[in-house]
Target: Pyridoxalphosphate-dependent protein
Amino acid sequence: DRAVCAPLPVLGRDVTVPLVTGGDVTYAALDYAASAPALQRVWDDVAAYAPYYGSVHRGAGYLSQLSTDLFENARRTVAEFLDCRPADQVVFTRSTTDSLNLLARALPAGCQVFVFETEHHASLLPWRDARVTFLDAPRTPRQAVETLERALADRDPHGPALVCVTGASNVTGELWPVRELAAAAHAHGARIVLDAAQLAPHHPVSVRELDVDWVAFSGHKLYAPFGSGVLAGRADWLTAADPYLAGGGASRKVTRREDGGVAVEWHESAARHEAGSPNVIGAYSIASACKALTEAGFETLVARERRLIDTVRAGLAEVPEVRILSLFGDDAPRVGVISFVVEGWNSSHFAAALSAEYGIGVRDGLFCAHPLVRTLLGADPGTQGECGAPEAAPGEKSLNAIRVSFGAGTPDEHVERFVRAVR
Ligand code: PMP
Model:
């Protein structure tokens, strides 16, 4: 089993869980799109560093300096991993959600935002204080570019604008035409931020090649632990904005004013948006995961994941009651994230049965992408279905779906067991 997963073993592969049918089975973690297991390598790196950590940017002591070096090196590692431009900033945040909210707070006055209705709520919702145009779900990558071009052509060409787009859907796993969307955005004087939460763990991301202005991703989906994320990209909007949090670390100089108040000079570097004692272990573990993925080589990882995707899709295709959810069709390039419904089955019961009877962990629901899942299920995009809502009655359209997702470290046996269980 371990040999199959080489070169990137993950934690939790020996966990056994009880089955309702009796006995134990090793847990098959097939919910990577929610949170991937941490790489053994990340765990080892953190364990090796743990005895030596100290507060960063403050202390004169040796360990404090060591932590400061590791934290700042982590920034450089992430910049290399994302193939950033020399002047780009890498800001450590808590998550993709946090990164996109930070960018939303840094929009220039009057900024127009363009976002497809198919986005995860983390990309859909942070822009509510701006003028937002929600774009209809496209049915081909080409249609996505045309839809964006049309919307941008109608915009006020003099004001600032931002496009927010996901690299890989957390529902269908399908890749979006990021480079083409970036070209369209730039041709119309807009900027673009890439939500790489699902893309970065499965695929190389090059800021330069894709020509995106910012990238956001989360550590816990990139085989590092919870609590850390990244916003990387152009410094100008970030430096012109008020700090995301006000406090120590973000401020360079604070003085009392004659009128009794305080005057603050804020940092212009990434520290501007990292007030408070930063999550050094989080940044360090993201950097460790970036290095491990780079060393393993995305070519190898992508090839192996493609084989697992083919196994799952071929297995599901043999079950006539299964319908795989897709916007762009069977031939679309995709990562290991597959959502489906099973005719005659309540999706929540189905997911619960996979867990109780087979020890398989998947996810059911609307996956924090309510408008997209409703569109894919053919439900009324405006009203039906909500998290925790009762499932469809027999004969009605399902309001929930089941999602299976995997990646580095997933043994063949896990996806084979999943296919067997669905059959
Ligand atoms: N964007 C996408 C495409 C996602 O899949 C997710 C997580 N499901 C997020 C953003 C949000 O990530 P986080 O919960 O780590 O902030």
